């Protein structure tokens, strides 16, 4: 009864406060309903098993409320196709063993206590080795981070230690790549930019008869409301975990159309500035080979945002300006 509601509120308060004071991580290993779903979000870091949902209300209760058979399962409401693409879930796993492995791996990137030293390990490859990956036309963010095999099967090392990069939010806002890696055995947070056009899939709502699935192309190297929010969220998480930051900046700017402004691109961009201004660890902004940084995108990651923490670098072939040449010609 009412006592259960009070108890649930106390749990929510304690877990929300715990995120501020220590490391919190939720592993959804079974069906998570009601206050359990809120806890998955309040703890911020979340791993979901592929066969278990995160929901507020059961599908049968919703069907009774709507007066017809609309939903057929809990997975339809809160499975990974929903929660891994909306920013709630960081990682998805197939079973409990994989989930526990990812928990232990995540813990290996964070200090034992808030403000403590980072868990530095012996690197698998020397930190002074050259970066062998060289982009041909555009910079593949994952190849630049973790390396890639070339057409002959030869390994081309990336910027960070081999096999150390763990991507999070992979299914959400795919034009930005976020995750944790190690550089010379030192854990760091990484934010990079997708250069290819990605498709954003918005599922249909079975509760609305005229609703239909929508697929929208998202251009690479552009911040949209969801990808800007993802960037701001990653900055907040990395700062809480005490990680040095690397931003492989390769943005042409923000998308400023009517829908983007309605969906909060201005708020998300401002949050990026705020989270960088309050970043307490060293932050390195690097424009990679064949990369570019223009206008408003440059403004929100400039070293003046946090002069004591941020340093900016650029590869010799990188470009930066207020406007692209075509825009300057028009003016």
Give a structural overview.
With 331 residues, this protein is an alpha/beta fold. It folds into 2 domains: 1-108, 2-enoyl-CoA Hydratase, Chain A, domain 1; 115-330, 2-enoyl-CoA Hydratase, Chain A, domain 1 (Alpha-Beta Complex), CATH 3.90.226.10. It contains 12 helices and 19 strands. It has helices at 2-21, 35-42, 59-66, 74-78, 80-83, 96-107, 141-146, 225-240, 258-262, 265-277, 295-301, 325-330, and strands spanning 26-28, 32-33, 46-49, 54-55, 91-93, 148-149, 155-156, 166-168, 176-183, 186-193, 198-202, 214-218, 222-223, 245-248, 253-254, 283-287, 292-294, 310-314, 319-321. The protein has a 6-stranded mixed β-sheet with strand order 8-9-10-14-16-18. A 3-stranded parallel β-sheet has the order 1-3-5, with helices on both faces. Strands 2-4 form a two-stranded parallel sheet. The termini are far apart. The mean pLDDT is 92. One of its GO terms (molecular function) is ATP binding. This is ACCase2.
Topology:
Blueprint: H1 2-21, E1 26-28, E2 32-33, H2 35-42, E3 46-49, E4 54-55, H3 59-66, H4 74-78, H5 80-83, E5 91-93, H6 96-107, H7 141-146, E6 148-149, E7 155-156, E8 166-168, E9 176-183, E10 186-193, E11 198-202, E12 214-218, E13 222-223, H8 225-240, E14 245-248, E15 253-254, H9 258-262, H10 265-277, E16 283-287, E17 292-294, H11 295-301, E18 310-314, E19 319-321, H12 325-330
Parallel strand pairs: 1-3, 2-4, 3-5, 10-14, 13-15, 14-16, 16-18, 17-19
Antiparallel strand pairs: 6-7, 8-9, 9-10, 11-12
Helix pairs in contact: 1-2, 8-10
């Amino acid at each position: 009864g009412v006592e259960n509601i009070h108890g649930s509120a106390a749990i929510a308060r304690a877990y929300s406060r715990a995120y501020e004071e220590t490391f919190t991580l939720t592993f959804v290993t079974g069906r998570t309903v009601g206050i359990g779903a809120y806890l998955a979000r309040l703890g911020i870091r979340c791993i979901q098993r592929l066969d278990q949902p995160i929901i507020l209300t059961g599908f049968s209760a919703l069907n009774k409320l709507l007066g017809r058979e609309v939903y057929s399962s809990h997975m339809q409401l809160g499975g990974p196709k929903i929660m891994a693409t909306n920013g709630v879930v960081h990682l998805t796993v197939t079973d409990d063993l994989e989930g526990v492995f990812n928990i232990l791996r995540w813990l290996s990137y964070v200090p034992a206590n808030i403000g403590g030293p980072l868990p530095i390990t012996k690197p698998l490859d020397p930190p002074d080795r050259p970066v062998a990956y060289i982009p041909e036309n555009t910079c593949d963010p994952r190849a630049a981070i973790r390396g890639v095999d070339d057409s002959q099967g030869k390994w081309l090392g990336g910027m960070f230690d081999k096999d150390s990069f763990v991507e999070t939010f992979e299914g959400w806002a795919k034009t930005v790549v976020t995750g944790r890696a190690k550089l010379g055995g030192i854990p760091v947070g990484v934010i990079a930019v997708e250069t290819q056009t990605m498709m954003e899939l918005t599922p249909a709502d079975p509760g609305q008869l005229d609703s239909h699935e929508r697929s929208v192309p998202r251009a690479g190297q552009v911040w949209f409301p969801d990808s800007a929010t993802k960037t701001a969220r990653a900055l907040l998480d990395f700062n809480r975990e005490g990680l040095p930051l690397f931003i492989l900046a390769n943005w042409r700017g923000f998308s400023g159309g009517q829908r983007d402004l309605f969906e909060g691109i201005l708020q998300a961009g401002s949050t990026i500035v705020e989270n960088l201004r309050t970043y307490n660890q060293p932050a390195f902004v690097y424009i990679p080979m064949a990369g570019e940084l223009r206008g408003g995108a440059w403004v929100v990651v400039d070293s003046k945002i946090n002069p004591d923490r941020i340093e900016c670098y650029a590869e010799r072939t990188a470009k930066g300006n207020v406007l692209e040449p075509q825009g300057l010609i028009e003016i």
